[in-house]
Known about the structure:
There is one protein chain. The chain has about 100 residues and is mostly helical. The protein has 2 domains: about 55 residues, Arc Repressor Mutant, subunit A, CATH 1.10.10; about 35 residues. Helix content is about 65%, strand content about 0%. It contains 4 helices and no strands.
Amino acid sequence: MPKSYPPVFRRKVLDLVAAGRQVAQVAADLDISDQMIYSWRRQHLVDTGRLPGLTSSEHAELVAARKRIAELETELAIHRRSAELLARVVAPIGGSRPSR
Length: 100
């Protein structure tokens, strides 16, 4: 999994690029990929509404929703399996004791 950088760091990197520094130079100085800087810049443009796409907050909501769906599907599978097992239970032979 790629290394994660805090939002403050990403913002400062984008500020350096916006101030006129070359992406390749900033990437070399900070020992990060220039492609990462381009990705951060594109995501910033999406987040600010200047490009179409999925914003960071929408992406976070989508990830959380997918996680919750997976949890619910697992829970449902457990309930279905338990219902299946309970359906197999057969009443004892002879039923209950006759009343007097």
